[in-house]
From TrEMBL:
InterPro entries: ArsR-like_HTH (IPR011991), BlaI_family (IPR005650), WH-like_DNA-bd_sf (IPR036388), WH_DNA-bd_sf (IPR036390). It comes from Streptomyces adustus. GO terms for biological process: negative regulation of DNA-templated transcription. Belongs to the BlaI transcriptional regulatory family. Signal peptide: none annotated. One of its GO terms (molecular function) is DNA binding. It comes from the Bacteria. The keyword DNA-binding applies. This is BlaI/MecI/CopY family transcriptional regulator.
Amino acid sequence: MAGTGPHKTPGRRSAGELEGAVLAALWAAERPRTPAEIQAELGGDLAYNTVHTILKRLYDKGLVLRDADGRRGAYRPTRDAAELTAEAMHDALDRGPDPIAALQHFVTGLSPAEEQALRELLGESSP
């Protein structure tokens, strides 16, 4: 099947997609969430053990913290979505041989609103 890759079952989400969905559920919450709460929010199509495994992976990566609540554990993100995205952008720039060229290519692909926001952040006025 095109686009699914040799080891991916059609309709099955990758580990990265599942981690993203769990992080999105945590970011949307106003308080730490238990695996059961996250499972319910994601529509219940994931087994509890799958959600728990994803949370453990995110914990091992330092992306979530576990708050003890009696015998139940509730999880919360260590960084918000913007902070995590900025970190990923910095990591991507650091990996390449020419970070300035990569940054130039990135900036040329910005939407007008993103370009304006960047100009404002850098203290420049509109063209």
